[in-house]
Structure formats: C-alpha cells, structure tokens
Amino acid sequence: MIRSARELGVATVAVYSQADVASRPVREADEAVCIGPAASAQSYLNQTAIIMAALTTGAEAIHPGYGFLAENADFAALCADEGLVFIGPSPDAIARMGNKNVARQTATDAGVPTVPGSDGALESAEEALMVAEKIGYPVLVKASAGGGGKGMRLAEESDLLPHQFVAAKTEAKAAFGDDTVYLEKYLGRPKHIEIQILVDRDGRGVYLFERDCSVQRRHQKLIEEAPSSVLTPQLREEMGQAALRLAATVGYEGAGTVEFLYDDSGSVPRFYFMEMNTRVQVEHPVSEQITGVDIIAAQIRIAAGQPLGITQDDLRLTSHAIEFRINAEDPAAGFRPSPGIATKFVPPGGFGIRVDTHLETGASVPPYYDSLIAKLIVSGRTRFETIARARRALAEFEVEGLATTIDFHRSVLEVPAFVAGDYRTDFIEEEMPELG
Ligand code: MV4
C-alpha cells in the first residue's frame, strides 16, 4: 500500500497498535499514528480512533487493507460522513455482498450460475427437507452471515437434515448474531477458483483472470496460483464476464473478487457463484504478476475518480505465478501459531521472485494478530518453470526463532498431484494426511 501510494506521489499515514510500534510500515510511511493498545478491538477495529487519525493528519482517503474493517459497510459509510474517501466500493455494495444469501439472489439476478438450492432463507426444518428432496442429497446448510466455512453443516441424507439445520442456526447465531440459513446442493470435490476484477466509477471493468486457491486447510488458504491449470479459455472468459456482470448489478467500484466453486465431476465442467469479497485479498500479487497491473495503485486511482485506463484486450495470459503463504505456524503441531522473535530472516531473491513482508531479522511476531509473516510470490513463463523456481526459492528461505510453513511448502512441491496441477479443496487431507 505504502509503496504503491508513493509511486503515485500520494503521501501516507500508517495507523498502528502499540504491539506494532517498531514495525516496518510504521517506519516506511510518511507519518504514523498510534490508535490504541495491542488488542485489535481497541485499535485496528476502533473506527473512531482511525477516523480521528485521518482527520488530525489531514488525510483525504483511507485504504482499509485486507482484514479488520475492509468489508465493514458501516465503516465505509462513516468515512463518507466524515468527508473521507473509503478506498473501496460503496457501503451498499459491501452490504449486498456481505449477506451470502442476498449475494446468491443477486448472482441469480445477474445471470451468474449458482448451486441448486433454496430461494432465499429457510424458515423451518420442514422447508429445508422439501428443498433437499427437490435438489437431492447431500446438501449443505449455510449461514447467510457466514463465509469462510463458519456456520456450514453437511447433511448426507434426510434423517440428518433437521439436526444439521438446527446446528447451523445455533452456530450462526453464536458467531454472527444472525441465525438466517439457506440450503445448497453439496459439491463433493470442487476447486476454489476466484476472478479478480477492477471497475472504475463509470462502470468500466476488466477481469485480471483467475486464481486457483484450492490448497487450503480449514478454510485458510496456503497456496494460490494464476492461471488455473484446469480452465479452458472459453470457461475463463465466461467466468470473467459473469464476475463483471455481478459487479455491474450492484454498482460495484474498485477492486474485488468473485469466488466460484468449479466442479468437473460431471460430463462438462461447471462453475457456480460462491461469494464476493469486496476488498483486495492477500493473494492479489499473483494476479499482479501475470498481468503487470498494480492492483493497489488501481484501487487508489479508481477511488480518486480516474478512469481505468486499460481494456480487456490489453490483458494477455503469457506467464504463471504461485504464492506461498509463509505463516508463523507449526505444521507438525496442527499449524499452531508460533509467535516470537525472528532471530534470522533471510528471504530468497533473484529472477522471478517477489517477497511481500513486514518482517526483518530481530523483529517480533506478536501473538495478537494473523500469523502471516511473508508472501513468497514466484513467477515464470510456464507453470513448470515456476515450480522449479519455487523449489529453488523455498530452499533459500531462512527463518530462525519461529516455526514456519516453509517446510510444508517444500513438501507440497514434491506431491505429484500438485505438480500435475490436479488438486481440489481436499488436497491436504487427501495427499498430506499427516497434516490434516
Ligand atoms: C460449498 C462446498 C461444496 N458445495 N458449497 C467453504 C467456505 C465457504 N466459502 C463455502 N465453502 C464451500 N461451499 C457447496 N454447495 C464446499 C465448500 C468448501 C470449500 C470451498 C472452497 C475452498 C475450500 C473449501 C473447503 C471445504 C468446503
């Protein structure tokens, strides 16, 4: 963010919690303002403190990053009320995608395929049984306020559905304070494929192709790559157009991602709308690498009312990129977080290597936040070349003082199914069962 802003000649103010006082972004930004103690509820989620920091430093706009308040419609509205530009879509667009059940209806309205399921929220277990009878088992009960797998329950047959209906509602109520649920047919071995889009204020949009994010563990992504090995040019274009149609339907502005389930278990591969993320995502660099488009700079330009300046025809798929998330976690201990001091931090370099990180030797990883410490993004002309380069880069990467996912990634690159590009969302359980 700071780097892209600086290239555009835009001055930056970093906000930070007391736990991050010695961090690199605090040093790199033109100014920095402490917004509270380590606990995120009192700092990074403290809307008033963030707005105050912006107003007192004379900032014009707020970039919400990819966690915390990035998909909070109330925060986007608060920015507008205070005369600040929220770098992202309108509060209305955020809210319409935030409710997964409403988003699903919106997708249907936009002519974007959705998984067969209920029309809207389910009123009762009886209604769930009726819908399930029509679409066939197995079915998934999903929380409207959910996302990322929370409040999601599988029913293999009708005997189990009433229980799973209540369980999903209870879990949703506890996690989100909203017990609304809906139903979808369960797809057994899908791929998670998402389309990156950019749309300017005039509604002109492009898709920056797809990312395959199927290597996940308990809904935490670990590896993302672009393009996907499985998409035909025709399906890629269909998914891109579908993503742009959905965006147009809600008057979307800025960078966003439309997530799809890709199912090739039938005679023809199909894709279905899953969710839309109304923010920039952790894995956006792979799309930047294969298109040459700085997505953060594009967000800033779009928020300033500037036209996109590129068309779909300007974008050609001629290279490959894979991102490996380096987390301070111990894969041998169920990926348990491993905060502490990085006594040694030596990232790889050379041709085709990009490392996005805030970490440096001697710096600490506090226990309060996400355990992502670096993103290793490897690019090549082909997937084959990219994998060879990734093996080399991961062998160079040295971190001491913390357990990390570096060894895990080295192992993944030796799994034949990954090397062949033949992996689904069950990859880790299926191919690396000792880590599931
Ligand atoms: C599904 C599905 C199968 N069928 N929906 C997971 C989190 C949330 N975003 C939706 N999720 C899923 N929805 C239907 N109808 C399987 C998953 C799913 C999944 C999706 C993407 C990546 C990893 C996943 C791991 C388990 C389940």
Provide a concise account of the structure shown:
It contains 15 helices and 21 strands.
Task: Supply database-style keywords.
single chain; 436 residues; alpha+beta; Rossmann fold; Dna Ligase, domain 1; D-amino Acid Aminotransferase, Chain A, domain 1; 3 domains; eight-stranded antiparallel β-sheet; three-stranded antiparallel β-sheet; 15 helices; 21 strands; globular; binds ligand MV4
Describe the structure.
The chain has 436 residues and is α+β, with helices and mostly antiparallel strands. The protein is 32% helix and 25% strand. It folds into 3 domains: 2-59, Rossmann fold (3-Layer(aba) Sandwich), CATH 3.40.50; 116-185, 2-Layer Sandwich (Dna Ligase, domain 1); 191-435, D-amino Acid Aminotransferase, Chain A, domain 1 (2-Layer Sandwich), CATH 3.30.470.20. The chain contains 15 helices and 21 strands. The strands form 7 sheets. An 8-stranded antiparallel beta sheet has the order 12-11-8-9-10-13-20-18, sandwiched between helices. A 3-stranded antiparallel beta sheet has the order 6-5-7, with helices on one face. Helix 4 runs antiparallel to helix 5 (91-98) and helix 7 (125-135) packs across helix 8. It binds ligand MV4. The site of ligand MV4 has 17 residues, from strand 7 and strand 12.
